[in-house]
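thought: fold this chain, then report.
action: predict
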Amino acid sequence: MKFGKVEQPERIDFTMPDDHPDTEVILAKTKDDGSPSIFVGCAKWNRQDLKQFYPRGTKDELAYYATQFNCIELNATFYRIFPAETYQKWYNKTPENFKFFPKIVQNVSHLRRLNDQAYPILDEYLKVTSNLKDKLGTIFLQMHGNFGPKNWDRVVRFVEYWPKEFQLSMEFRHTDWFNDEKVAQELYYLLQENNISNTLVDTAGRRDIMHMRLTNNEAFIRYVGANHTTDYSRLDDWVEKLADWTDKGLKNIHFFVHQNMELESPLLSVKFIEKLNKKLGCNLHIPKTLHDSGPTLF
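observation:
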């Protein structure tokens, strides 16, 4: 994932922005409704990307991955629509409590850019994706960085068309969605009224899109490490932020760990899960790695 990559991450101010004032208002609506549901995973299960993770002789990477993590951010579905049989295989290889969080195919978001021709493709995508059944988590739509507010009518139509039986998160990257206060407020309201989560992306080179505005009771967070020592302190900050949001009423945490060069995303995930377990008193499984002396990247 090259989005937001910088050459010298040590020069970036990674201070976490203050919450948008309406985030606490959203969370307060479900403050006393029980413990949060927490899913933490990587973006893919490919052996070449996740070095120092799979034991020698592993024959089925997904089956093993699903013994270590409780979810996957399914980036593979961005590139093509898989046959229904593939989804069924993925379903059968994973345990009962496992969740898939698939990205909507690029033909909808990047090639057709939510125009009229996008909808038959979306229908086909959702038909096969539904084969994940109870293991289907939030589906997410990532728009191109040059998809700006001039396309507002397309966004409104897409939101109105979206079938409500599927949970959705939307990610906008054009700076004007957030730098123009009027545009931002209209977007937040649209997502909020339709129970769509506002994807949060934490990446080094685009601190401007750390809007910290939740639009429903889901924190859908795509964390992109910079392959640098600062990756760990940034994750520490997220542990504190999620603890704060949980105290205020957050009930759904969906956190996905990337790196610009994926290399060893599971190692970052181990540290994050360990600290999250301690801070929130949860009991997420600690993934195993091949580092005998304990996981470290840098």
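thought: worth noting. DSSP finds ten helices and nine strands in the chain.
final: tokens above.
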